[in-house]
Amino acid sequence: MNYGVYNLNNPELLDTPTMLTYPHLVNKNIDEIIKICGSPNNLVPHAKTHKSPDILKMQIARGIRSFKCATLKEVEMVALNGGLEIVMAYPLIHPIKLARFTHLVDSHPEIKFSAIASTSEHLKELNRAVSNIGRKVGVYMDLDSGMRRTGVQPGSDAVHFYSSIADTEFLTPVGVHVFDGETTYVTSAEERKSMASNTIKEMENIWVKSENEGIPVTDNLAGGSWSFFYYANHPRIRPTPGTWIYWDTRNAEMGELPFEIASLILGQVVDRDPEKDTVTVDIGSKACSSDQPLEHRFRIIGYDKAILVLQSEEHGVVKLNGEKMEVGDFVLAAPGHACTMTVKFPSTNIVDQEGNIHGQFIHSARDR
């Protein structure tokens, strides 16, 4: 199989559906993220997309040593494989999660751990858990820039909450954390830039008022896949990109970013319906996430007109629109959302530039 940058020899040796990853494209994406952010030290990429120690080590080999995590399994993976700074960017309130987090903090004194918080309950329970190990932990205030999912609202509430971190015994205020998910899928680059500029103004307001009260602000994190580059040149913000490592078809709608889709799904045509001009592939929702609108869940490489029109657990019905596919044909599908593809597979097949298969990368952080 040969479709542009994607080669695959002997696809029949792999049972379908299965995940493929092209390390040469992953390396290209690492090159690009460092170039955009200025240096490996100026970014805190998310581990949620790849969930793999091997992909993590590829980043560490290039000087990236700080990582953001959404689950404690990701934190464990980063801690065990060379990360020097870990931000647990998910509210910790469950006692089991708090115990796991503080155990990791206590077990890895060489690593700088931080958490996020946006309610008094977060601070109370995190402070209590950390007190058991006698070691202070840095806390970023989670600021809601407009997504209305987690975070303190901007303005006086945010300034007051940030100062309250300093009132705890075992927590140290670090700065502001923002995931501006409201920018996701906003097609206008100018509109996204304006949204990021407004977020920066809100962050700066918190910094000024906090520092005037003698409360330090030493670091700040901001951005997601659709906005991180707007923060890259700010001297007080480290961007926190997510999907860039594998990329996907939805993110590729941002033509200004030079990343390559580095992971695909290998599937096979298992049936056809000439009357409906469709074929059925074995890429159902159990192989490709259904969180995207139907037509965006995956696109078949090399068949630009073909569109997914129906998907169930183990089937994907594709309208050909003039494209030609036959029963038994193998297909390469680019996901609409790479982060939710990884959890569908316990591992991904490693494919080199010439299309040869070289073992697997294990998704050790697939679970929570």
What is the strand content? 15-25%
| Number of strand elements | 18
Q: Mean of the pLDDT scores? A: 97
- The helix fraction, in percent, is 25-40%
Low-confidence stretches: none
Regarding CATH, which class of the largest domain? Alpha Beta
CATH architecture classification name of the largest domain: Alpha-Beta Barrel
Rounded to an integer in angstroms, the radius of gyration calculated over CA atoms is 22 Å
Decide which structural class fits the backbone. Answer: alpha/beta
Rounded to the nearest angstrom, the distance between the terminal CA atoms is: 35 Å
Instruction: Count every helix, treating DSSP H or I runs of 4 or more residues as helices.
Output: 8
The CATH homologous superfamily of the largest domain is termed Alanine racemase
Number of domains: 2
Largest sheet: 9 strands, mixed
Q: Give helix and strand order, one letter per element, not per position.
A: EEEHHEHEHEHEHEHEEEEEEEEHEE
General shape = elongated
Q: Return the CATH topology of the largest domain.
A: TIM Barrel
Report on this model:
With 368 residues, this protein is of the alpha/beta class. It has two domains: 124 residues, Beta Barrel (Lyase, Ornithine Decarboxylase, Chain A, domain 1), CATH 2.40.37; 223 residues, TIM Barrel (Alpha-Beta Barrel), CATH 3.20.20.10. α3 runs parallel beside α4. The longest helix is centred in the middle third of the chain and has 24 residues. The chain starts with a strand and ends in a 6-residue tail after the last strand. The relative contact order is 0.17. The model has no long low-confidence stretch (mean pLDDT 97).
